[in-house]
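Cont'd.
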Amino acid sequence: MKTIPGLALVSADLVRVEHKMREAPHQDIEPLSMALDTLLKSGGKRVRPLLALLVSHLYDSLSDKVIALAAAVEMLHTATLVHDDLIDSARLRRGNPTLNAIWSPGATVLTGDFLFAWAANLAAQTESVRVMFIFSQTLMVICGGELGQLFHRPWRDQTRQDYDRRIYAKTASLFAAATEAAAVLASAPESKIKALRDYGHQLGMAFQIVDDVLDFVGTSKEMGKPVGSDVRQGIVTLPTLYYLGQNSDDKLLAQVLEGHANDGVVETLVARIREAGAIDAAMHDARNHVKQAQAALAGLPGNGYHQAMFDLAEFVVQRRI
Amino acid sequence: MKTIPGLALVSADLVRVEHKMREAPHQDIEPLSMALDTLLKSGGKRVRPLLALLVSHLYDSLSDKVIALAAAVEMLHTATLVHDDLIDSARLRRGNPTLNAIWSPGATVLTGDFLFAWAANLAAQTESVRVMFIFSQTLMVICGGELGQLFHRPWRDQTRQDYDRRIYAKTASLFAAATEAAAVLASAPESKIKALRDYGHQLGMAFQIVDDVLDFVGTSKEMGKPVGSDVRQGIVTLPTLYYLGQNSDDKLLAQVLEGHANDGVVETLVARIREAGAIDAAMHDARNHVKQAQAALAGLPGNGYHQAMFDLAEFVVQRRI
């Protein structure tokens, strides 16, 4: 599979979602229109809108409200990235300069805030109070997870539970919100809303584990950032956690995770983690999440969109980007 | 008038609003519970919840939803202050250390984001899509106004329209949102919803003009910040605008607004602005807004809450804090 499954089925809808995102008011304020243009032009995989759109087609319920929902979810994601890049002092995202690379911290904070408000407005355009709750609860989970990470325990004490919670907050919560909210708008039965939320949740867990694995196995050219960028920043992801479980006395671990290592040392550690089977163990877990996502689809309407969602889960663990 | 009119009428409701604000989820994340506690303990005048509560009583429509609305409005205000203090590098607010004074910028940004999400959740608790729209649109206006200010024109080119837009975005928009949303929840007729929005809007304009005047006439002890703190930061408020209109060739203006002045020079300029009648001119405008706020109340139910809202408008131009 080279292209994202389901993408071709909803390509016309995705164009509407892009237009919707650009409808933000107050674009007479120049920095806002420039920021919106920069952020939307630089693209992204649009996985979250894709999920919402596939669910709505599964129930043959595409509407302006679903387009607004898909735009809301992607805009929320975009707003969190604006603040994340500021917090991490990241200079590039998807090969383009970040907002904080070209603007003051203050302007970057405010632009992110504006995009949160625009995302909330798009969510309100669904005219569903329940969707508004899903939306606001998800943003609380995302921010709470990031704050928890800033005040995290020492790397040696981090557990699998810490990791699972963190990637749920970071990624799976918004995937789950996209599929759940689309099911709510489709007026699906409660049991199916729950199943679709589970699908999004499990898919998101798999997606983030693979993201964390790619940080070890991808080339820096593919990833647009140096190999091992997580360990360089002291972040313990699943491969490191597996390696740590069996090699807690490796002195390189402490050196790298505590920020005292040069590039050569980082590369040696990355090679050791690859060779120790930690990548295979992590990918095994990702595949388990994929199986659970696919299992959640049983009992949902059987049509081309169902198949696309099934294939999309498979794709998540096969992707290289 | 020494106490805020209407406050005694709703003091029990305000206790409920405080409790409601503290109901934020995820308080097992220690930095979040600490931040919430710090921010809510340090208090504030709670003018925005007061407005929502008075409007609801005017229509005898107090409910859990109104308590949630009042909490949402104050939480939104609190979240914007967290980011504002970070952007301005303010160390103190109401005599207490700001979050950015004790935490990293990253933790401060994320805490503000969390509070925005909690405010959105409180707004969703009104179960009114229309209130959600008012809420998200107001946040866009606030952020847009602040961004506009960061990229503002040179001080010499600033107009009264720039000033009016800025204080609408900064203050009047949220006052108007509080009164409008409470009227919506009260199922008031559309003409009365509009009148109540106007009341909040005009009151907010007066409130902010007085705030800007107090920066010139209050003592630093009363205000908790040095006299003339706006001009020190290069911000042109209404008294400066009036002074500038008649004394555009005063060399001290350029010196202070461009940040090249010591304390003595700032104090001389502040004294000149006071003596030039600029304060009186600004207060005259504030009183006009008060009259318009009071006029908007004509035709609304005549009860003790109506009178309190009338008196509250008067109080806004008499206050010293």
